[in-house]
Structure formats: C-alpha cells, structure tokens
Amino acid sequence: MTDSVIAPEIMDSPVSSGTVRDYVALLKPRVMSLVVFSGVAGMVVAPGHLHPVLALVAVLCIAVASGAAGAINMWYDRDIDAMMDRTAKRPIPQGLVPADEALAFGIILTIASVALMGLALNWVAAGLLALASGFYIFIYTMWLKRRTPQNIVIGGAAGAFPPMIGWAAVTGDVSLASIVLFALIFFWTPPHFWALAIFRKLDYQHAGVPMLPVVAGERETKKQMLIYTLILLPLAISPYFLGIGGLTYLAGSTILGLAFVAYAVQVLRSEDHKPAKRMFAFSILYLFLLFAILIGEHLAV
Questions:
Q1: Which class would CATH give 18-174?
Q2: GO terms for molecular function, please (predicted)?
Q3: Are 142 and 17 in contact, with CB atoms under 8 Å apart?
Q4: Which of 254, 274, 250 is nearest to 263 (CA)?
Q5: pLDDT 10s digits, 126-152
C-alpha cells in the first residue's frame, strides 16, 4: 500500500468563500465535542483550582486547537475525501470552502489557541496543546495515514492529549495520573477506529488508505481489536488505584470494560458488519461514560 500514496493536489476549480456553517464544519464539531469533554475531565480531576473564566479559556483553547487541526487535516486530505462516501460531503470536496482558505483558517486558529493557552494559563499546557496539534497534522495526517496500517495506533496519540492538557492547565505539570488518562484514550482509539474501518473498508480501499482491514484483512483486525479491549480492561480501572476515581468509577469502568470486550468478541465471531457498527457506536459511549463518571464523582465532593 505504500506505493499507492496519493499526494494532495491543488484544487483549481473556482470556489466561493464558504458560509459560517461551512467553516464550522471544517472544525469537525462532533470529534471536537469528545476531545473537549476529555479535556474537561482532566481539568476536573486535577488537584488544584482554576478561576471559572480561566477554565473556560482553557476549554476554548482545547476546542479551537482540535478544530483547527481538523481543518488542516481536511485541507491535506481533500483528494481522498472526495473519493470516500463518508467524507465526500465535507466543505472542500463540495467546493464550499477554498482549500487555501481552509489551510489559513486552520493555521491561524492553531497559533491563536496555543498562544492564548500559554499567556492565560501556563506554557506547559500550551506546549502539550501544540504537541497534540503538530502530532495530528504532521505525524498522523501527513506521514502515517497513507503509509502504514499502524497509522491510527501511532497517530491516535494526538487524540489522547486533551485530558493531559486539561490537567496541565490546572497544575502546570504532567503526572502519572494524567499519563494514565492519556493511555486510556491511546489504547481506546484502535478498536474504536478499526470498528469504523471494517464497515467502511471499501471507502479506504478505493482511496488507497492502508487501514488495517484493507492491508491485513478483517480477521486479523478483529483479533487486534479484542487484544486492545483486553488491555483497556485493567487500564481503565487504574484511576481508582491512583486516587482520582472512586468506587462508582471502579464499578462503572469494570462494567463498561467487560461490555467493550464482549462487543469485540461479537465482532470477532461475526461474518457481517453489523456487530462492528454496534461496537463503533458503543466505543463512543464507553469513553464518554468513563469521563462522565470521573467528572461526576469530583463535582459531587
């Protein structure tokens, strides 16, 4: 698959500047919502306190940086986005936003969000925010995505930074607890995304993107999905033993973890794509509920 890398080409067709709605779509708001929520979780469980205004600024910076990286991702991937059913209606392939404007939009928002985080909060959080953006744009989007079936494993680290960023916004440092929250998302990402890749396999195959189901086959992908959910099972309960999760979290993370494993087993045993679709939907709920329980416990104290 390495030889089938598709280089992005300049879109020469005339395009008018998009509407506000089109530029919001560039920010990938659905992806952004989970990123922001995990960042909030890191802020809430971190020891210390932030003024509400500063907390809102930190959340805004995480949201804007996430969206900006998404916009740059859409600029770079506009050629393959146009080939895939799932992404063909994005603003650039649809001719709603000029590619160069999307790129400028993403760059300006990235710089602004990192600078604001550093000036308003601290430069550790700003550095992590810049690292997450750079990792997603340069390591995942531009380097790994079109070259290796391990793209989402390594590149998934970019999406694991938000709770660590939220933690650093409060404390100004990185701790074992924040690293565990990072690891939780890091190991959650492959089974989450591979579930999508299984039932969107033809999309990726058509666009020449070497996702694991395309390169190694569905059976191997399903085995690896199960392995990752088994790794997540003890990892997800570790916040309890680190003192940032209570008994409610311990019970909830155990039940959710066992359910995630059960979904992976169903996917492994199935010959059709319906279990993969259900697992993909559950994986989003899984991560949301884990962080919701953590947040709820800390706010209830």
A1: mainly alpha
A2: protoheme IX farnesyltransferase activity
A3: no
A4: 274
A5: 999 999 999 999 999 999 999 999 898
